[in-house]
Specification:
homodimer, DNA-binding, Arc Repressor Mutant, subunit A, 2 domains, 3-stranded antiparallel sheet, about 140 residues
Chain lengths: ~140, ~140
DNA sequence: GCTCATAGTTAGGTAGCCTAACATTTTCGA
DNA sequence: TCGAAAATGTTAGGCTACCTAACTATGAGC
């Protein structure tokens, strides 16, 4: 990596980190009204796709398995998920959405999407196109990490 | 807002929220090695620009004033910031960086920038340009919220 | 079959956040 | 100008989410 490239990459990295931080504050302000926390939303999002193990929930949330167990038990007590033994491996536990959980997730997700959409509405069409193009690139970053 | 526009905006909003969530996990994995937490980094970043009040730290971090006081006192005990009365308003307290605090912030910031830069290095030039163009747009979102 | 690795839970402790109550200073209207 | 209300922080007490360590139970391999 040449020196001039390095400087440009570092500058972009810094901007990226700063913007990400600001976006997190924005995101947090949208979460702060509701019943479901960001972590709960994430957990339900994963389970909405397909039942998954406790260890995968922990890995995806970036927390340890005991912490994930704790949170999942709370979701279970709230009637939003079920914990059932994995038929293919009796050690494992599969977390899956209940109907109530799916409804709660969809409602919460819709509310948040509507708020973000209201912000996006204030952008120009060009800006939205640029933003849309950037999202898969950010996902790529995540994937190569 | 027309219905078709609404659907497109909602779809973009959902992608945006998902990508943001993933980016947060990425960011968190980079923070998890060091001595300074994300919140501490943010606080030092603000104070690095200019001394600021406890209430502004709280507002920028999205936490309450007592919580900010708590964190700032810890930073003070670590010798990274000073708390001094605002000369223009005796109720207020100005948080400012010590030399040690500035050095710690710069070092931590550099480490994180280098890691992100290494990821950016793996992107193509076009992707980097798109990403760079999107950052100010995301900031705009934040500003209009 | 014995050993070791894997999946989760339980137990106990820490840190960060909250609200409520308080002290101090500033602002502003009667 | 003086007293009430607002603004700025701090203190006190409690809650929640996270952690590590220790444990149970199941699967995998020599």
């Amino acid at each position: 990596m040449s020196l001039s490239t390095d400087v440009r990459l570092l500058a972009l990295a810094q901007s990226f980190r700063t913007t990400l931080r600001h976006a997190v504050y924005l995101s947090r302000s949208m979460d702060s009204d509701g019943e479901l926390t960001t972590m709960q939303m994430s957990t339900l999002s994963m389970a909405a796709e397909e039942p998954l193990r406790v260890s995968r929930v922990a890995a995806n949330l970036g927390i340890r398995v005991p912490s994930a167990t704790e949170q999942i038990i709370k979701l279970e007590q709230a009637g939003l998920v079920l914990r059932q033994p994995d038929p293919t491996d009796s050690r494992a536990v599969l977390v899956q959405l209940t109907d109530k959980g799916r409804a709660a997730w969809e409602a919460a997700s819709r509310r948040r999407n509507e708020r973000v959409a209201a912000l996006l509405h204030q952008l120009g069409e060009d800006d939205r196109a640029t933003l849309a193009a950037a999202l898969p690139i950010i996902e790529k970053l995540n994937h190569t990490a």
